[in-house]
Amino acid sequence: MALSSTELRDRLRTFSKCVCDGARLMVGQGDYEAYAAHIRKTHADQEPMSEREFFRNRENARFGVGNRSGFRCC
Q1: Do the beta carbons of residue 62 and residue 25 sit within 8 Å?
Q2: Contacts of 65 (CB under 8 A, 6+ apart)
Q3: pTM, to two decimals
Q4: Which of 20, 40, 58, 71 is the most buried (most CB within 10 A)?
Q5: Which of 64 and 32 is assigned the larger pLDDT?
């Protein structure tokens, strides 16, 4: 069964998002949209971090800033 150009484009978009999300997770960067949706759904009384704060939080966790155990090369 052949796919229409719209279906093919949608599948490629979904695939590329999965690849990008996987690459981000490999380097310690989660998906901000997934994080924000989770906070809004399960912690309605909390305001999600901004995208910038989220990025910084993930970077700090990755590199062990503030007594967090994370990857350190030196």
Answers
A1: no
A2: 59
A3: 0.60
A4: 58
A5: 32
